[in-house]
Amino acid sequence: MLEIKTKSFNELSTTELYDVLQLRSEVFVVEQDCVYQDIDGKDKKALHVLGYKASKLVAYTRIFKPGYYFNEASIGRVLVKQTERQHQYGYEIMNASILAIKDNYKTDEIRISAQTYLKRFYNNLNFKEVGEGYLEDGIPHINMILKT
């Protein structure tokens, strides 16, 4: 089980921020072989959901209030360190993120821009596909909605 911390950008220590950016780069840039601008200026407006195992950051998302990224609240930059994926931490960090949205933004509608190959994972969390697929940074994506 992960230790979950939810923090605003200003609450992150420099070490926490470094760990987040290092893990995001490890997964989204190196592992997925995708050159894109990860540091996009949106981190300052997000709440950051950090998942720790034995004091090491192994899972992460960032969440946004309704109206900032989409009309609905949203979850993005969803990741689990490659060596930790067999433990189902993706479900743990997503459930913590859904709860953080309910607690902080008082809404039950969440939209995500999901990598298409992860549709089944998000379906298991009750997200439903909406609209057509599209390319984002050269990777197939689809919008998905959760209404709890």
How far is the first residue's CA from the last residue's CA?
24 Å
Q: Which topology does CATH recognise?
A: Aminopeptidase
As a percent range, the share of strand residues is 35-45%
Q: Tell me the overall shape.
A: globular
CATH class: Alpha Beta
Classify the helix fraction into a percent range. 25-40%
Q: Can you count the helices?
A: 3
Second CATH tier, the architecture: 3-Layer(aba) Sandwich
Main sheet: strands, sense, barrel = 7 strands, mixed
Order of helices and strands: EHEEEHEHEE
Find the count of extended strands (DSSP E, 2+ residues).
Answer: 7
Strand arrangement in the largest pleated sheet: 1-2-3-4-5-7-6
CATH homology superfamily name:
Gcn5-related N-acetyltransferase (GNAT)
What is the CA-atom radius of gyration, in angstroms? Answer: 14 Å
Count of the domains: 1
Structural class comes to alpha+beta
Mean pLDDT across every amino acid position: 96
The poorly predicted ranges are none
Describe this structure in words.
This protein has helices at residues 14-31, 89-105, 119-123; strands at residues 3-8, 47-53, 56-64, 73-80, 109-115, 128-136, 139-147. The chain is globular and about 40 Å long. The chain is an alpha+beta fold and 148 residues long. Strands 1-2-3-4-5-7-6 form a seven-stranded mixed sheet, sandwiched between helices. The protein is 27% helix and 37% strand. It has three helices and seven strands. The chain starts with a strand and ends with a strand. The protein has a single domain (3-107), classed as Gcn5-related N-acetyltransferase (GNAT) (Aminopeptidase).
